[in-house]
């Protein structure tokens, strides 16, 4: 995967700052795969160029600040932002309608799911800010909880696969599915807990 090799080279040369900057750019909808960026950060940790736990913290910071920037831009600039050429290209009428449909179907829960939807993540966060239906603190909690699932998986996958690229490439392809399965299991556990708790109260 050429982009992974390119990111490994850049991150090896410039370290944590490069990882943070790339993840921040990813948050703005620039087509650099966030998962691959996190894996590349894990790889350079596995090769001894960085500490993997620090890399996890840097990854969380880059992801959350990038996501927050999109949400706050939407909140304070509103739909006027869509007149800008870059955002108009990112938020096409079709994509905007798709995001609106997801909000109608899932409500604010879509902000948690958005972290696992490459391509729709930035438009969803931007729309959430525009809607003013959710506070920034609630957005940060939902996004942060989702990031606590996805970020360590990608970073530690890169760390443990640093010396075995064939194994790493295999699991990089399977990783998104594995995360979605994990999210499904967590959602099931929460649902069962909620139902049992409600029955006990009744």
From TrEMBL:
InterPro entries: DedA-like, VTT_dom. The chain crosses the membrane at residues 7-32, 52-73, 139-157, 177-195. The keyword Protease does not apply. It comes from the Bacteria. Belongs to the DedA family. Keywords: Cell membrane, Membrane, Transmembrane, Transmembrane helix. The keyword Membrane applies. Its main location: membrane. Residues 32-159 form the VTT domain. This is DedA family protein. It is a multi-pass membrane protein. GO terms for cellular component: plasma membrane. It is found in: Cell membrane.
